[in-house]
Design a protein that fits this description.
about 0% strand; about 140 residues; single chain
């Protein structure tokens, strides 16, 4: 993997995924993102699409409250569609799978500081993707 920094699109694989999204018809972009997330969640053994799943999660998180915009120098150049809310859950599940994979992308970092920074990015993405807790109506208690 050619990696130049710790951001979601700062590696060759994710940059190629961004190019694929740019080349896809607008209505096909959601399916590409959904597909990479589902394949990552369902994968057995080595997570071959982990870098793409992180990039997809970043695109979804960018549309959430408290989400950060994606770095456009390596991310997709074309606007993404508004993603349905169910993709948030899939993105969070894919990131959980990636974070929990001891032999996956986490093992690729040579510098421990880079690994910590990358893991912090995934943690922030997961915090943004997590749905807000349901609000519980308080009952009126009369004494």
């Amino acid at each position: 993997m050619g990696t130049w920094d710790t951001g979601p699109f700062d590696n060759d694989t994710a940059a190629d995924f961004a190019n694929a999204l740019d080349e896809a018809e607008p209505e096909a972009r959601e399916a590409l993102i959904r597909g990479v997330l589902i394949r990552t969640i369902d994968a057995t053994g080595y997570l071959t699409e982990a870098e793409e799943a992180v990039a997809a999660a970043a695109l979804i998180a960018a549309q959430c409250p408290r989400g950060e915009p994606v770095d456009m120098s390596y991310g997709p150049e074309t606007p993404m569609p508004v993603f349905p809310s169910d993709l948030r859950v899939l993105a969070d599940e894919a990131l959980a799978r990636i974070v929990g994979d001891e032999d996956g992308p986490a093992s690729n970092w040579v510098d421990p500081e880079d690994w910590k920074q990358w893991r912090a990015i995934l943690t922030r993405l997961r915090a943004v993707l997590a749905p807000p807790p349901p609000s519980i109506a308080l009952f009126d208690v009369q004494s």
